[in-house]
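Page 42, continued from yesterday. The earlier attempt failed because a stray header line got pasted into the input along with the sequence. Redoing it now with the clean sequence only.
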Amino acid sequence: MLTEVLAARSRDDILAYKRCFTELSDAAYRWDAWAAAYLIGGGCSDDSFIDFRAGLTLQGRDWYERALVNPDNLAEHPALASPDDAEAEVLFFCEEINCAARRAFARSVGTSEDFYDA
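This time it went through. Structure tokens are written below.
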């Protein structure tokens, strides 16, 4: 769904989204956040931590900021308070979101070859 929403936007909007997304993801690249991801996911590889940071941005500004203040705050997240670990996995480890801007760029422009250069 995010890919479709972005693809309907201008090339510049897609690139602005990617820059913002990357900044948020990079800011969450911390050992304490990785420890939270490890606990939530029952382990967390390098690739899984990339997906976790993407999922963290999807939780919205409030949860994202709470997690950066103290990742232990995520223990209060409703999905993590649920006994259904699958829900937490879907919400917090979102590989597809990492590719949304590139895919939207390709749909909008016709190719993704220039995406990273742009």
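Notes: The chain has a mean pLDDT of 89.
Reminder to self: strip header lines before submitting.
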